[in-house]
Design brief:
By secondary structure, this protein is an all-alpha fold. It contains 13 helices and no strands. The protein has a single domain, classed as MetI-like fold (Orthogonal Bundle).
């Protein structure tokens, strides 16, 4: 090593930036930028979700009897207590429960059958899948008007078919009987939403490995045995999701009843949502209607919790 090289000054030590200073400022800038991007969505969500929820809760605590602003008497929980003491409220709850469980049960059974048919290796099955989705794609208002026409007492298709086949000699007013009208509304809902359930279950069927069915055939299981021991257990999470979604929607049923029967005859098809609509907007008891709306939310939450606990009890991967 030469003397000139030996006399070179040592290289300066690398300067280490102040720990946390630059990174903290960068994170702050990123946070502000993210908040600026999310601000419009936050405002929209607050305006159409959070504020109406809080406003409805606030209204339910007052005796509001007009749509115009003003000062109204504070009643606290009296609207809720009054609702729970009304027989027509509980009658509407029972009718809604009947509609919910019957329609959801039929939709699950029929949807399972249709899903298995659509999953089968048939030629041109895409055509059948297109046809099956049509009832669900039909607007609910149109669906209700169509079924009301079918069961019309004067010119309905059902009465015409029954008389032409000789099953009956005169036209019947099916929608004039409370229980018959309720079941017709149930059937109209089943006809529309079964296809949705079928496609949920079809999506679940596509995730099941085909090797399991081959192994089941080797072990001597037939189609029914494979369905019971493989298909149903592996579809259980999908079934529970379908039950939760359809139960929530069925319990809130309003539009198809409004179109087909208007809650009649003799309130025979009056659901809890339709009862709330009548008390809040027809009778202008807005505070009482707001309390009814929150009671509907409570009922739906209870049903959802029951379904979720059933799924958890089976230990199918949910915490």
């Amino acid at each position: 090593m030469s003397d000139s090289t030996a006399q070179l000054p040592p290289a300066p030590a690398a300067r280490v930036p102040h720990a946390g200073g630059t990174s903290w400022r960068a994170r702050t800038r990123e946070g502000r930028f993210a908040l600026a991007l999310l601000a419009p969505s936050i405002i929209v969500v607050f305006g159409i979700v959070v504020y109406p929820i809080l406003r409805t809760l606030y209204t339910s605590l007052f005796a509001v009897d007009t749509p115009f602003p003003g000062h109204f008497p504070w009643v606290g929980l009296d609207n809720y207590k009054y609702a729970l003491q009304q027989s027509d409220f509980w009658s509407a709850v029972l009718r809604t429960a009947y509609f919910t469980f019957v329609s959801t049960g039929f939709e699950l059974v029929f949807g399972m059958g249709i899903a298995l048919l659509l999953y089968a290796p048939l030629k041109g099955r895409w055509v059948f899948r297109t046809i099956v989705v049509l009832p669900w794609a039909l607007p609910t208002i149109v669906n209700g008007a169509m079924w009301r026409y079918f069961f019309n007492a004067q010119y309905g298709v059902v009465n015409a078919a029954l008389t032409q086949l000789g099953i009956t000699t005169s036209y019947h007013a099916f929608l004039s009987s409370p229980f018959a009208a309720l079941n017709i509304v149930v059937w109209a809902d089943v006809w529309k939403n079964t296809s949705l359930v079928a496609f949920f279950l079809l999506a679940g069927l596509t995730t099941i490995p085909k090797d399991l069915y081959e192994a089941a055939r080797v072990d001597g299981y037939g189609r029914w045995g494979s369905f019971v021991h493989i298909t149903l257990p592996l579809l259980r999470p999908v079934i529970v999701v379908v039950l939760v979604l359809r139960t929530i929607e069925a319990f809130k049923v309003f539009d198809i009843i409004y179109v087909m029967t208007g809650g009649g005859p003799a309130n025979g098809t009056q659901s809890i949502a339709f009862y709330t609509y009548q008390r809040a907007f027809s009778d202008e008891f807005f505070g009482y209607g707001a309390a009814l709306a929150y009671l509907i939310v409570v009922f739906i939450m209870v049903l959802a919790i029951v379904y979720i606990r059933l799924l958890r009890s089976e230990n199918y991967g949910m915490a």
